[in-house]
Amino acid sequence: MSPNPTHPHTPLPPWIRKRLGSGLQYHATEGLIHTLGVQTICTQARCPNQGECWARGTATVLILGEICTRNCPFCAVAHGIPLPPDPTEPDRVAQLTQKLGISYLVLTSVDRDDLTDGGASHFRAVMQACRAVDPSMRFEILVPDFKGVQREALEILSDARPFVFSHNVETIPALYPKARPGGDYHRSLALLELAATMWPDTPLKSSLMLGLGETETQVLEVLADLRRIGCDRLCMGQYLKPTKDSLDVEEFVTPERFARWADQARAMGFTWVLAEPFARSSYHAEQSGARHKVDIE
Ligand code: SF4
Question: Is residue 41 within 6 Å of ligand 1 at its C-beta?
């Protein structure tokens, strides 16, 4: 039985089980990531899907360092004062995509409130380096909230479209002080809404973790907010405590309830929905996000 980090004497529910990574492709992915010195959110966030995703030859690349300027207690990524962006990173990521043979990459970053553009130009540089190798590369960019520089950041990113634009609201607004103290729910919505206004043909995606103490009514209100501002892709997964110091899990949502959430979200107009315990915003993104409203080929 798997240990439950929130209540060590209570076993995890039977549906919270994941296989460890193994197999030739897993080790090939691991070896390339290590050799090229590329960071992944798979490892940094202790994602439970790492074994499965890396065995399929996919990973979500984490750019702009391993140190976040925010300190969200649900997240395992380290916080502090980050180093300047590494100018060799775009080429290393491009080599990784080439060697893995992938044509759809989810790209994310730590929060970089220390940078005047929030890190947007580095996102663009990584995408441009990958497209210099493979012009048909598609991206799903999962970005921070670009506090204070939202319009400037999106203008920079405009040069590197099209992609799926993703920003996670993560939880309900009432839980922001506890789960996302450096964030602001309305700032996150504003970023998505700005993207919808500037890029009406770009799919917008957001994700929610369940199990932090939210009510169903509160979740429905978030889904309604997301639809109102034009978000059309939704991911909902179970929050799992990544370290012993992270926030406790308040509830394990059953797979059946996740399935009903998926039905409800589709009924609300989300055109792509992933709702299951191990859903993460980048999980199977390469299969689901392949077609854009804008054809890039
Ligand atoms: S779901 Fe995303 S973050 Fe998790 S292992 Fe897969 S690619 Fe990495």
Answer: yes
